[in-house]
Every structure is written in C-alpha cells, then in structure tokens.
Amino acid sequence: DVVMTQTPLSLSVTPGQPASISCKSSQSLLHSTGRTYLSWYLQKPGQPPQLLIYEVSNRFSGVPDRFSGSGSGTDFTLKISRVEAEDVGVYYCMQSIQLPYSFGQGTKLEIK
Amino acid sequence: QVQLVQSGGEVKKPGASVKVSCKASGYTFTSYGIYWVRQAPGQGLEWVGWISGSNGDTHYAQRLQGRVTVTTDTSTSTAYMELSSLRSDDTAVYYCARGHWGIDYWGQGTLVTVSS
C-alpha cells in the first residue's frame, strides 16, 4: 500500500499570511498515462472533506485561486497565498493511483 | 448538481451488523465508482472500500476484509456498505464518496456507534 506523509501536522497562521503543507508518498504517483494522482482536501469542523485540488495542481470548481498545488513523483505541496478565517480546518492529501487509496495524517490549520 | 445522501445514524451492540445507504443523484450512477471512507472520533480518514459503478468490481481494506461488503442497486442509484461483527473500534463516521481515479464529491456522513 502507498503511505502518505504530511508535514507539518499543525499550522497557526495570521490572516493574510501564506501557508504551505508538504505531502510525500512512499512511491511515485505518476501513472503511465502521464497523469499524477494526488489530491488535496479540506475538512472544515463538522463537515465532510471537500475537494480543493486534483491531479497535483488543478483547482476544483469553485475553489479560490489563493489555493495552489505543485509537485511531482513523490513530493507535493499545497500553498495558500493569503490565509483567510474560512480556511480553518484539517487538510488531507490523498493518493489515487492505486487501491486502496490512502490519506496523509492531516494538517490542522488554525488562525492566530 | 451531484448529491450523495446517506442514511441516518445508527447505534449497534458489539457483534451486530450495520448497513449504511448512499443515494446518488445529479449524474449517471454507472459512470463513477463509489468509495467508502470512515473517520473515528478525532482521527483521520481511513479507506473502507470501493465498488465500480459499471461492473460491480470491489476492493476492500485488508483490515476489514471478511467483515465489509459494498453493493449497489443501479435501479435506484444507491450504494450500500454493510459491516458485520461490529466492535467498539468500528465507531466512526462513515462517508460515501464518488469518483473516478480520485474522489470529488462526498456524502454528509453517517455516524455508527458501537456500544454495549
């Protein structure tokens, strides 16, 4: 199974400042089709996860452009250019190149 | 719009079984797989299983193998997740989700509580 490792596990950010989360996979997420199957989710308190980014860097419908994803192979990053109060919650990365899909441990974002 | 509406919360005794439903709407049910993911209180996300929307192929978490079954009823666009021989550590919110080479939409979650 693919193991996903996120850092840091918690983050406290002043509104308007940037934030960055790292996600590393135990094997490459690059498929033979050329697509890389790494997604990012935000789970706000009391809600199901919501998709932010798919295939490394594609923002899902309705996701603000302050969210961006980058990386390749086994190393990936989610960046928030200017954190807002509504961004609080737990962020997860997920690989979907092979079953079972697997998630990072989660990164809890708090506002200072 | 895509919606996944799950059945209500359940309280079960150890050793019992639970069956959670997930009714899909807003898309062609057989074009996407249905995933099941659970989240124990205060914990992260854990893979439970998957079923293909087109041919019924399944894949289950190894640690749940033999206790979990995922099915679909294409006539009603509904997916089901049944977990048997319940233990206290099965207490969690169970989510269904839709996707194809990834997950895009999630159900609201169903809390399953296992307690004597």
Report the radius of gyration of chain B as a whole number of Å. 13 Å
Helical segment tally of chain A?
0
**Major beta-sheet overview of chain A:** 7 strands, mixed
Number of helices of chain B: 0
Most extensive interface, chain pair and sizes: A-B, 24 and 21 residues
User: Structural class of the secondary structure composition of chain B?
Assistant: mainly beta
Helical residues, percent of chain A: under 10%
Order of helices and strands of chain B: EEEEEEEEEEE
Largest sheet of chain B: 7 strands, mixed
Overall geometry of chain A:
globular
- Terminal CA distance of chain A reads 37 Å
Mean pLDDT of chain A: 97
Shape of chain B: globular
Describe the structure.
The complex is a heterodimer of chains A (112) and B (116). Chain A has 112 residues and is mostly beta strands. Helices cover 0% and strands 48% of the residues of chain A. Chain A has no helices and eleven strands. In chain A, strands 2, 4, 5, 6, 9, 10 and 11 form a seven-stranded mixed sheet that branches. In chain A, strands 1-3-8-7 form a four-stranded antiparallel sheet, with no helix packed on it. The radius of gyration of chain A is 13 Å and the shape is globular. Chain A starts with a strand and ends with a strand. The mean pLDDT of chain A is 97. Chain B is mainly beta. Chain B is built from no helices and eleven strands. In chain B, the strands form two sheets. In chain B, strands 2, 4, 5, 6, 9, 10 and 11 form a seven-stranded mixed sheet that branches. Chain B has a four-stranded antiparallel sheet with strand order 1-3-8-7, with no helix packed on it. In chain B, strand 9 and strand 10 form a beta hairpin. The radius of gyration of chain B is 13 Å and the shape is globular. Chains A and B meet through strand 4, strand 5, strand 9 and strand 10 of A and strand 5, strand 9 and strand 10 of B.
